Amino acid sequence: MGNTWNTKLIPAILALTLLASLNSAPARAADSNAAPTCMGTDSALTIDNERALELKNSNSGAAIRANVAGKVERIFKEQCNSKGTCHDHFEIRLGENSDDVLEVVYSMDFGDLPKLQIGDDVQACGDFINTNVNPKRGPASPSGAIIHWVHRSTCMDHESGFVTINGTLFGFDKDRKNQACKKGVAPRE
What we know:
With 189 residues, the chain is of the alpha+beta class. Helices cover 15% and strands 25% of the residues. The protein has helices at 2-22, 49-56; strands spanning 64-75, 79-80, 86-93, 101-107, 121-129, 146-148, 162-165, 168-170.
């Protein structure tokens, strides 16, 4: 009798565990504080600072998915747009040269960041833009390029991004229901 109970219970537990994992948030690690997988257009992206620096030094003004890591080098003034959306701006060092830096632009609609300190460890996954090449994407960054959309996406046509600071995940705290999606694109539930 004990053997029959084990042969039925164990598969049931495994099935429930699998079902629960399928219903969890996409690309999130089991630890709610762990960074999710950074998704590119069609595959996962590993941290690649060299690629980001190559993009920064190219003539491409396109928004390209990137996953970078570095230390906070400078902290810029918070900026708010005409719609009342505020962003934290800070610069991280990606390499050895003086211009091997990138500005991180974080929407505070998705949760507050801690008080940043010079030297904090940062990983950022989002959309990389060389702002010196494409001024239509916004004002040129003092760093020469930005990474933004470093938060959960509420639009079905855009991958989520994230930022970790000293190993803590940010960008998933609040669901922003009014985020503008392209015409005809369904918002995520």
